[in-house]
Amino acid sequence: MKQQDYRRVLDGVVPSPALKGRIAARLEEPAPRGRPVRRPLAWALAAALTLACLTTAAVAASPTLREAVLTLFRVEEREQLPQVSGRAPAEPDVTRAEIGSLVKAQYIRTDGYYGYACGLLHKLTWDEAGRELLEARFWSMEDGVLVPAEVDMRTTQVDVTWKGARYQGPLYWFVRTGELFTVSGENRSTDGEEETQWYTSDIPGRTDAVLLHVSRGRQLEYQEYPLLLRLDTGETEDILAGTGVENLEHAYAFTWSEDFQRLLVLCGEGADWQQTWLCDREAGTLTPLEELAGTEAETAVFLNPDTLLLFAYIRDEEGIYEQVRCSTLHIPTGQVRQTLDWTSLYHWWDEAPSGAMAFGSRCVRIGADGQTWVIDLGTGAEVRLENFRFEKGADFMPSPAGDKLLYYSTDPELDGLGITQLGVVDLDAGTFLAFEREGFGALHEEGIGWEDDHCVSIHARDEADGSRWRITYQF
Description:
The protein is mostly beta strands. The chain is 5% helix and 49% strand. It has 3 helices and 35 strands.
């Protein structure tokens, strides 16, 4: 199985591909710090979860698309990857370039896995068990040169009990320029046949606390619950106590509104039963999604704190999702408005793929002839990508804010991604800039994604000398 095929399968079985951009960019991150996932064995559920990106990330409302047509501009100059030889460098090595004077590229070559967060490149060294952080090195970029940086690294000891299981371990963190960095090691443990694990996620706008997710079980038996963890004291708070969420069985995914007052809870038991609940923390209410305004929606995301995007589906005899319909629900009034009528869904495995790809509040619709439209699911407004034809092997990926789409095309003959074209659709600015690449065959490209709302990165390794590459693009 090729890397591209493997990534596509994962897209169908991981229940939180709304984080797809960040996960894709970190595919090479060592396993001890990976997030636990439910991995269903039934293909019908795998196909259903291909759509899970619609249910697992809060998406802020975006401005209405400004024009009916958005023209693709192809940069005439091709990207030429730097030619290097010899061993992997002992210290990170940086090369910079401009592609057609329109895209700034940066090539960081290292001797192993290096991460990136809070504007800093970092290398972490763990003990043999993968739990204790032995050394953390950081570099900042100054005038194109990596310079060692000092951070105020702190440690919070996690120690909490949930459903009779105890969760322990160190969480390392610091705050830099208003951004919070957290990292932990191996937090998985097994008591008999029961597997437990914990991980953390950021709370928008806060640097004093994180969400601590405690989990138990594996695959279809996986379940989790979020607690508020205060970084300065290590104290936890059950911020969902009294809402009814604490009594739900088989809950495994939580999507928060931007103001952190409402959340969607996804529950599932086995391959054939899934249910979504809407919790209002302030009102202390918990409502099944199907009861909201009598809707038949199966999944939802937040368009804004008071509005949900609702998705309904039609499946074939094998349980594969074939069509999608979208509506908005104004939670305070219960008003429902359809923004997308029944539309065929995109299936990457088709010989000539066409149909709709949904990314939170956006939808890419691909015609049988490759013509492509971007739909704002909050308003129903469409914009056509002019001078562009979608081809098999290509893909789109939304930015964290949802106002841009990363476009890339891959070479199916290579074991790695083999990214032949790269571009960004800026929906608010009304631009689509793309370029072709050369020299990528010398590297095994393992992941692509958004570093932030303005920067795209590719992670790769050179199998000849063992070096790793982090390539970033500013459009």
